[in-house]
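Hi everyone, sorry if this is the wrong subforum. Our group has a chain we'd like a structural model of before ordering constructs, and none of us has done structure prediction before. Sequence below.
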Amino acid sequence: MSVPQPWTAWFDATRAGAPHCFAQLATVGPDGARCRTLAVRERHGPELWFTTDQRSEKVIELQRQTPQDAHPHAEACWYDLTSRTQWRFRGPVRFLLPEQHPEDCQRLWEKLNDADRARFHGPPPGSLHQTGLPKPGDGIAEDFSILVLRAEHVKVLELADLPHRHWYYPGEGRVAPTRLMP
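Answer:
Right subforum, don't worry. Here is the predicted structure as tokens:
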């Protein structure tokens, strides 16, 4: 690829050819940087949508990051083994809750398998293990939410060919990317 297309189209094409799209989301907790793996569920414009439990440490860490009137920030990284391309997305994070966004939450809730839905009805993530599997509830769990990362800074590193190519998309990718040293 000599000059890449807008990152959103490139990402969608890469994701369509990938068997999975699990991104690592980095936050900062009281004990330092933390990273965890989340499935990218959807993309809307420059936003990546993940599902999460409002009781999780990542949510608590993000909410502690900034005053209530500002959005916390995070970075997500995805490496696609098929294309040998690394994607890094950085920007503000917000949460879509079932009470305020019932249609979006219902749509993503229905995409989860039974075991994933049941976990939202069980003990909080990171709590001590309990025997027995949680039972799924009748509807969306009250702690279910959509974590939305608005990608204001996107870096793409192509590793399939030599020389490697490294691209930076500022803002929402409307401006042509800048080529960086790999």
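For your construct planning: The helical segments are 7-16, 57-65, 102-111, 114-120. Residues 7-16 form the longest helix (10 residues).
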